[in-house]
Amino acid sequence: MEEIPQDHPRYVSLMIRRKIVEGFEAGIVVPQGLLAHGRGEAIDYILGETTHPPALEATRAAAALLLLSKHPVISVNGNTSSLVPHEIIRLSKLLKARIEVNLFHRTPERVKRIKEFLEKMGAEDILGDSDLVEIPGLSSQRRFVAREGIYSADTVLVPLEDGDRAEKLVAMKKNVVAIDLNPLSRTSKAATISIVDNVVRAMPNLCRAVEELKVKPTSELERIYHLFNNEENLRRMIELIFRRLSRLAGLEEQI
Ligand code: PTJ
Question: For ligand 1, is residue 160 a contact (CB within 6 Å)?
């Protein structure tokens, strides 16, 4: 691949793009994943490609919830495996949580490829290719989940989701932690906790928050989790986008 000059003003964004393209060339990311990434990039551009306070608060609440959970599971797809493989593995070790490959555009070959890719990076016992059951009422390929993974989890981390599964997981009385740059998406609205941030920033932040909160008593974790309100947090993110756009357009004094 061509060299990206380090002094390029969009160096970080271009390097992230490169990872997605490499994932695509390796058969891990689907063409639709490239489109989804572009949509994410557009929102991240508006956010100034930085993590905002509401996202950090959501990340802390998510870390508390994941630590309080008896059977947390990390659901991974093509995009997340390509963008943050090391953080997925680090988080699974910190939480003793299983990783499960769960795909919207599911083929057995892709599941195998993603599993092998993560195993090569050090992941163990990845679920998603055997002993599968179906999520009730879900017609997409994402309905196939591992019996001892997502199906029996109490909390599922779903970075970069496509919408209807989050709703069905909540209907199954599971907690859902979403990472999605779009605060208006169905996933963000349905999730128990939505981290509105780029997965490349949210996953390292989540690992750090888990490390920090791991030593805290259960009562403190419960306090952090119960103080969090997802609807209110999403409202703050939408307002933040509105204010940023108004400022950029020079309209701020008029609102
Ligand atoms: O690997 P598969 O087969 O499971 O397919 C994965 C995709 C991403 C194609 C599939 O889940 C899909 O179609 O997703 P959507 O419906 O396009 O939703 C993706 C959401 O993730 C959108 O709301 C994007 O804004 C958001 N998004 C994209 N890139 C990032 C992101 N959120 C956080 N970090 C990103 N880097």
Answer: yes
**Residue of 160, 161, 162, 188 to test ligand 1 pocket, by largest number of atoms within 8 Å of CB:** 160
Q: What angle is formed at CA 235 by the lines to CA 50 and CA 246, rounded to 5 degrees? A: 60
Q: How far is the CA of 70 from the centre of ligand 1 (A)?
A: 27
CA of residue 26 relative to chain centroid, distance? 21
What length is written for the chain? 255
Q: Is there an atom of ligand 1 within 6 Å of 101 CB?
A: no
Q: Which atom of ligand 1 is nearest to the CA of 188?
A: 23
Cα 137–chain centre separation? 23
Mean pLDDT of all residues in the chain?
95
> Residue 163, Cβ neighbours under 10 Å: how many?
16
Angle at 211 between CA 210 and CA 212, to 5 degrees: 90
- Non-local (6+) Cβ contacts of 25 within 8 A are none
pLDDT, tens digit, 9 for 90 and up, residues 73-102: 999 999 999 999 999 999 999 999 999 999
Asked if the model's pLDDT at residue 251 lies above 90, the reply is no
Burial of 48 (0-12, 13-18, 19+ CB in 10 A): exposed
CA-nearest of 126, 74, 114 to 97 is 74
Ligand 1 neighbour 30 (Cβ under 6 A):
yes
**Strands 155-159 and 72-76, how do they pair?**
parallel
Spatial distance between the Cα atoms of 152 and 161, rounded to a whole number of angstroms: 19
CATH 3.40.50.2000, domain 53-238, yes or no: no
Question: Could you give the angle at the alpha carbon of 100 between the alpha carbons of 97 and 104, nearest 5°?
Answer: 145
Bridge partners, 179 (sequence order): 159, 195
